[in-house]
Specification:
Layout lengths: L1 H23 L4 H18 L2 H16 L7 H19 L1
Amino acid sequence: MQHKSFFRNFIVITLTLWAIFSLLLYQHFALLGMVFIAFLLGLRHGFDVDHIIAIDNTTRQLAEKGNSSATTGLFFALGHSSVVFLLTLVV
């Protein structure tokens, strides 16, 4: 049952953010389209095999040591997206 609430929250947060983006960028439709394409490509990229394996291996190692592994995916995503964001600012 925990998975249902996770996906429900993910969908609600995603739709809320898209509503905000739409309000902020309604005059720049082409930019909103690029943001949407980047979002879809990023979502697809998140399910690449190397990402799933990295998170799975880290989760298993933490579980073997008796440590909590509940936030492994969150911190992986934050680290990964912060690097992408910083590189975008540089470019």
